[in-house]
Amino acid sequence: MEVLTDSDGWILIDRCGKHFGTILNYLRDGSVALPESFRETMELLAEAKYFLIEELTEACHQALNKKERDAEPICRVPLITSQREEQLLIMSTSKPVVKLLINRHNNKYSYTSTSDDNLLKNIELFDKLSLRFSGRVLFIKDVIGSNEICCWSFFGHGKKCAEVCCTSIVYATDKKHTKVEFPEARIYEETLGILLYESRNGPDQDLIQATSSRGAVGGLSCTSDEEEERSGLARLRSNKQNNQS
């Protein structure tokens, strides 16, 4: 590098002195404590590059990469904007997929008194499941989808395995009302069932039988009987425990 000197022979360094002490300590000791903040580490990196200190430059790069990784959220839930985007997400991941469609404005009837509360419960359950299984399942949210108002879809190996529709039409006198339900046990069961598709070899047939006794995995679910939901969940857990033992 070019070295500038004044008339007395002193070397002129046209840099801010903020990190110069750190530079000197690194040259003396061969190591130095790096700044805690991302910005100051970037500033030190610029100084290390200016003074051509390759080892300190590399140490700053490693520290910055670690800070970026630590700052990344553990749980990511894509909000899809089109059917094409949904298909790309489902086909490009090796994980099972759980999609929640929320489209409350898409309704021409009034809601029943418990519908708003149940809609929020569905959203809260989706958030809890996405935190719990974020490393194993891809959770996506759809707010622009079909005519459905609240619907769960479950995908394995790129194909839809099950669906839980949480809305229905009820009649009160001469008017129609939309009812939003919260089949919590059913949703838990389908989520546990979709974990069987983590393996590229496909799920074990015994576990498939445990979750498909009412068509939950083999096709679209079509019953909302709570006792049947809970017994199916119990069968699934029992089979998984037997396989592990």
Oligomer: single chain
- Specify the overall morphology: elongated
How many strands in all?
Answer: 10
Largest sheet: 5 strands, mixed
Mean pLDDT: 82
Computed structural class? alpha/beta
Low-confidence stretches: 213-226
**Amino- and carboxy-terminal Cα gap:** 68 Å
Helix content: 40-55%
Order of helices and strands: EEHHHEHEEHEEEEEHHH
With strands numbered from the N-terminus, the spatial order across the biggest sheet is 3-6-4-7-8
Q: How big a fraction of the residues is strand?
A: 15-25%
What's the total helix number?
A: 8
Radius of gyration (CA) equals: 29 Å
Region (Disordered): 212-245
Domain Potassium channel tetramerisation-type BTB: 3-60
Organism: Iphiclides podalirius (scarce swallowtail)
Pfam family, one: BTB_2
Compact description:
The protein is an alpha/beta fold. It contains 8 helices and 10 strands. 26% of the residues are buried.
Could you please describe the fold and organization of this structure?
With 245 residues, the chain is α/β, with parallel strands linked by helices. It is 43% helix and 18% strand. The protein contains eight helices and ten strands. The chain has helices spanning 20-29, 38-50, 54-71, 83-92, 115-132, 184-194, 205-211, 226-244, and strands spanning 4-5, 11-12, 79-80, 97-102, 110-111, 138-142, 150-156, 159-165, 167-172, 175-180. The strands form three sheets. A five-stranded mixed β-sheet has the order 3-6-4-7-8. Strands 5-10-9 form a three-stranded mixed β-sheet. Strands 1-2 form a two-stranded antiparallel ribbon. The N and C termini lie far apart (68 Å).
